[in-house]
Amino acid sequence: MSGATETAEIPITVDFSGGLEMLFDNQRRHSVSLPAVDANGKPATIAFLIDYLCKNLMQDPRAELFVLDNHIRPGILVLVNDADWELEGEEAYEIQPRDNILFVSTLHGG
Amino acid sequence: MAPVLCANCKTERALIKRPKNHAKLCKACFITVFEDEVHHTITSSQLFYPGEKVAIGASGGKDSTVLASVLKTLNERHGYGLELVLLSIDEGIKGYRDDSLETVKRNAVQYDMPLTVVGYDELYGWTMDQVVETIGKKGNCTYCGVFRRQALDRGAKMLGIKHVVTGHNADDVAETVLMNLLRGDLARLSRSTSIVTGDDQSEVKRSKPLKYSYEKEIVLYAHHKKLDYFSTECIYSPEAFRGSARGLIKQLERVRPTAILDIVRSGEDMARLVPGDSPSSCACKGQNTASSAPVEDDIGGCGSSSGRTPGNEMAAMDKQLRENEAHEELEIDVAKAMSERKLNGSEKQRDLPIRNGNSASKGVARQVRGNCKRCGYMSSQDICQACMLLEGLNKNRAQIQI
Predict the structure, then answer these.
(1) Is the pTM of this model over 0.90?
(2) Chain B partners of A86 at a C-beta cutoff of 8 Å?
(3) Which residue positions does the secretion signal occupy (chain B) (predicted)?
(4) The pLDDT of residue B374 is above 90
(5) What percent of chain A has pLDDT above 70?
(6) Which residues constitute the domain of residue B379?
(7) CB B324 within 8 A of CB B184
(8) Distance (Å) from the C-alpha of residue A1 to the closest C-alpha of chain B?
């Protein structure tokens, strides 16, 4: 029974745009099954998701284009179900099932 | 967290937190406010006249796509009476411009605007691929930047259009202000802050209607309006992505979002201290008095004057920065010049010599405008920068062919 909670996963969709697609297999939308809790048993937050994406989804070695000093790179916007994550608690936002998280870079040109 | 309601309509869920004033807005209110502010910039700066033909410098990227969309919307909503066309530059970089040009072609259909593409090859006889083949990747941005600046003007001339608008945003202008500040180039700093560049004498004027728009809001506008744009990074300048000034601006924005517009306004205020023309094209506030720091009104407010030099100048600036490091005497030069003026006594502060970052050590006065003896393009030298660069390139090609 305890094993069930440990392996519980949250189904979400993660989108990348504004040039970030290139770090993630040139694909805009990814379906992700995120572990419901982190290594310390805390509910999965966006901070946890960002770390998870770097370790599990990113194809490109240039992680610094996505994360700087363990935080999302300045200039990358994060939208939680279309809302600016600044309205949702930023890194501390707890991921809910079927959430859509969009990472969009403002850093790339035309 | 409970959903936050829009501060404006108080009914819809807020989705946007505005960097300039932290206002929390819903999608519809945000889109309206964004458009209203650009409209305000356009009217208070008297950017256009009815019936004017205007070319939108279109790259397929977020800024120019948003610019085209907003201008079309405002032109119809407020009856500007503008004839809008899209003008794109093909630098001739395989695998880079191809996809974005496809985006521009779709934009032309979506916005019902005619599109003209002018290529470096037809204008200069060189594609950027060929330039890089000849000179290598290092320094190629200088060529590209110089060529692009002229290319937009020449494209506009071909179309009989005297006004080109570009998608430079507040972040871009702040970045340029910082770079020019770091280079000690007040003359260019002055020019780079004005919303309109080029005057009655120049054949094509440039303007930046999005000068006060945050890059963040441009991206959000494109997202929420589901605009079709393309993001890419030039394959020849990977270092530009990690660009120093840009990184600094973005970090500052995180700590204090208003910093970006504050830098733009500081740039405008400094520009007013530079002698010569500082066209106060914005009729919004009293700009001629540097002391009356205008308080931002809630619709966007304008400062004084005009925008940024060509697009891809980060690398060129980086290069010049490195070169300038050697010129420590520049600093001494200005101090000396200032004290000399003081001794002379009679002169006012406005007559301080303004240095140009890349001119070695003389206190250079403002550039005198003339025409290139070779191509006829507006230039402060006998031979314009593009023709100088082309001369070097053509010599190299001749050698290779032998």
Answers:
(1) no
(2) 17
(3) none
(4) no
(5) 92
(6) 369-402
(7) yes
(8) 30
